[in-house]
Amino acid sequence: MCGIVGVLSLYKKTINLRYLKPMADKISHRGPDDAGYLCLNSGTFDEKNKTFYKYFTEKKFQNKINPLPALDSESFRRELYSQNFDLYMGHRRLSILDVSYAGHQPMSDSSKNIWISYNGEIYNFKQLRSELKKFGHIFKSNSDTEVIIYAYKQWGINCLKKFNGMFAFSLYDNLKKKFYLCRDRYGIKPIYYHLTDDKTLVYASEIKSILEYDEVNTEINKSSLIEYFTFQNFFTNSTLHKNIQILEAGNYIEINLVSKKLKQLQYWDFNFTNPQNIKDEREYKEELSRLFSKAVENQLVSDVPVGSYLSGGMDSGSITAIASNFFQKSNNTLKTFTIGFDLTSASGIELSFDERKKAKYMSNKFKTEHYEMILKSGDMEKSLPKLAYHLEEPRVGQSYPNYYAAELASKHVKVVLSGAGGDELFAGYPWRYYKATNNKNFEDYIDKYYVFWQRLIPNKYIAKIFSPIKKDIENIWTKDIFRNVFKNSILAKTTEDYINHSLYFEAKTFLHGLLTVEDKLSMSHSIETRVPFLDNELVDFSQKIPAKYKLGNLNKVIKMNENEISKIIKTNDGKMILRKVMSNYIPNNIVKAEKQGFSAPDNSWFKGESIDFVKTKILNKKAKIYKYLDKSVIKKLINEHLEGKQNRRLFIWSLINFEEWIRINEK
User: What is the pTM of this model?
Assistant: First the structure.
């Protein structure tokens, strides 16, 4: 697990070399163990088509056996700056697999014609390496990085379809004069990019590295601002920085360095449809159990310590049960981590938000080495500057508990397992699917579902709240943004069809947002998060399980509003087949427990212990958000929360986060 940065010039003979190290330094938290740099002249600006490169590191990372030149050597810098290079690849390494120098990146094949800078883990790399050896490929390391290189040499860019894992990487092919930027199926690992006015591609694992490159000029993306404050998420590939995009999940960019043509292609997408070859639920359960256990086992491969989050719920509990069993077989003990909350000032349903008791119960049962942290209202305030810096832009959910969870885990392990993905694959939010029932047609479904996903600002307030930037967003229709998530032609005749469309939508948007948040916050503490539910075989199979096995009653789905947390009626509907399978691993009282998300008691805290912070941050006349948002409308909506008339916890958190984002990014 690492961080990557890079620059590719399509029309200028050379890139600006002064910003290579600063770009990589910005994401040193993603890879504190090693640093590597490649500057390459592709020969496309040279009539003789001569290719040459410089491969170097820093003094503190120099290897005694195979010492590379150091960038912080004055003589080498003079030599480097005297030449022209149109491609730069930078890498910061968090050593997980093959922690030796053999895993150093950027990495090349033996001929030095294929170069890669890679962030991620390929869990089936050993199987692929065995297959590639039969074709005659020779390996010098035990890393998955080298497997990607030779998989590309053997199968071309279609090798992406063979990788079971999480990844974002750049790859240069000197023989074909092609450059690729690639991202995994589900978007577990992010990669951002910006095309400058002179057609120079600047890319990185995090936005902050792109902003470090001097030729990048950007401003706030006002179109994305209205997108975020409607959905508390981004459904497009845009960011709050104008002209900086995130590469969509399951996509890659291919650039021909000779013709200068750039194209983006999708190699995979979710497809929730029912199969024809399995007869009954029993067969589904048996195969699901096998694949889930296999997925957890696959993701335990590591050359450094592995732990697991343990929230007290079914998903993380099942992962912990299986992982702990494998640990015990090798006479080791799995470490588990739980975040709890101080509930002395909480009320109503928020009194049940602390899951430490259930987590400790499962820890005892599975014989794990358990650690926990208790958060108070002031912890949100203390974490905000660092959290906003690492998160880079507001995203879905109230994410500071995740920040502290990663901090806790990082003190004990380098890899941690997470239950993300279980809800989205197995219909874990039953109250979201009632919009999938009783539809006249697909557009009727879109109308109802769109209203539900307005998590922050209902349509009636949008025009008023964005009045300061009205002219800049008058042609932006958030319903069109919502509708465009469904890119393919729609066939929906039954309730089950509509539920499958809902699952598709949430996997493409809500899950992607959660994964982006998890990556940023875990890597801020130099820790790798793995998600067993997003194993390729498990995902492919789960998409084909009929919705009737996931939801208890397709036509009587519970209704609730996620903002109105004090009115939420708990339910143990949803994930029905998964509950039956998980009963093989965890106690019945956990399997049958009602659905509850990982959330702090912010409804109470924003009205009580954190009220002064809220007022100081976003209700004062000097708040920076009012350059973009109408103060009178904001004040009205927040007062409704403070007076207990409406629960606007998500909205308040988003305002606080946006205010901090402006402070960080304002020059």
Answer: 0.94
